[in-house]
Amino acid sequence: MPGNRAVVYEGPGRVAVHEIDYPTYELKDGPGVNKANIGRQARHGVVLKTIASNICGSDQHMVRGRTTAPEGLVLGHEITGEVVEAGPDVEFVKVGDVCSVPFNIACGRCRNCKEGKTGICLNVNPDRPGSAYGYVDMGGWIGGQAEYVLVPYADWNLLRFPDRDQALEKILDLTMLSDIFPTGYHGCVSAGVTTGSTVYVAGAGPVGLAAATSAHLLGAAVVIVGDLNEERLAQARSFGCETINVADGDPTDQVRQLLGHDAPAIGEPLVDAAVDAVGFEARGHGQNAQTEMPATVLNSLMTITRAGGAIGVPGLYVTDDPGGVDEAAKEGSLSLRLGLGWAKSHSFVTGQCPVMRYNRNLMMAILHDKVQIAKNVNATPISLDQAPQGYQEFDKGAARKYVLDPHGVVGKRAA
Ligand SMILES: NC(=O)c1ccc[n+]([C@@H]2O[C@H](COP(=O)([O-])OP(=O)(O)OC[C@H]3O[C@@H](n4cnc5c(N)ncnc54)[C@H](O)[C@@H]3O)[C@@H](O)[C@H]2O)c1
Ligand SMILES: [Zn+2]
Ligand SMILES: [Zn+2]
Question: Rounded to two decimals, what is the model's pTM?
Answer without folding.
Answer: 0.97
